[in-house]
Amino acid sequence: QAEDGIRDVERSRGLGDVYKRQILDWVKENYTDAIHKAILKVSGKKYDINWLLAPSDNKKTDPPKEKQLSLINSYDNGHFIYPCFNSDYTFNNFVVGSCNQFAYVSAVTVAKQETKKYNPLFFYSAEGLGKTHLSNAIGQYILYNFKQAKIHYTTAEWFAQEMINALRKNQISNFKEKYRKCCYVLLLEDVHFFQRKEKTQMEFFYTIDSLFQMEKQIVITSNKNPFEFTDLKSNLKSRMCSGLVVDIKKPDFETRLRIIQKKAQKEGIELSPEVSEFIAQTVKDNIRRLNSVII
């Protein structure tokens, strides 16, 4: 059974592993202050905490020391940044095919900070085709190669919940400062959640507009083309589409076959060519389902 908790403390930093995003969000919301106080009481020092979504195979595998350090962000003006990345979702683990090649190239370009033209970078597709993988890969690459970068990786639902909590606690100025001033890269998943939530839409618009004006990178994912939204404000839709909008399509047979082979190799499973081809021919619409067949 997977164990949740703080795994390692090194050089004034802490690394926590939580295996499910829902648990992670709940722990962050309810126990962050208590954890900080407990660490301070025991060690006499302030530690930054990074919450890392551990691999889904439930194996307790520690990343190399340099990777551990790279996934920790800095402490600035009282704000802690909590990127919650799936450590399996890297560029090296992404299988490129004709269905996602443009998305992959644009993600690598943004991660390497080679241009500001792809801002915002907007990925859309049906579920399970690699949007989250690419946004995680961007975040992890930036953290590893640009160690001082302050990154927020969140979902639209969590952004909305944070805003509601800030309003209830009369701390909306802290919320705005966190996302507008203490943020170098914002990666937000599932922006379609904002539909019919006008106040949240306005807050998010001002947030990304502020980041855009300061030339901070924005990456957004959705389950459909932003031009197809009917319940989003026009100014928000316009800002989200002002950079690069990329469609990720369903993988073709060759891409599905390479995904199966890569997953089987990672899991140490030997599959005959016939079995691999049968799976690739049977599961066509969802890469997550394709991977789950191998486990």
Descriptive overview:
The longest helix is centred in the first third of the chain and has 23 residues, at 21-43. It is globular and about 60 Å long. β1 (5-9) and β2 form a beta hairpin. The protein is 45% helix and 14% strand. The protein has eleven helices and eight strands. It has 295 residues and is α/β, with parallel strands linked by helices. The relative contact order is 0.12. Mean pLDDT is 81; it is low at 1-19 and 56-82. Strands 5-6-7-4-8 form a five-stranded parallel sheet, with helices on both faces. Strands 1-2-3 form a three-stranded mixed sheet, covered by helices on one side.
Content-based structural category: alpha/beta
The strand line-up of the biggest sheet is 5-6-7-4-8
**Count of helical segments?**
11
Order of SSEs: EEHEHHEHEHHEHEHEHHH
Kindly provide the radius of gyration, computed on alpha-carbon positions and rounded to a whole number of angstroms.
Answer: 20 Å
Shape: globular
Mean pLDDT, as a whole number? 81
**Helix content bin:** 40-55%
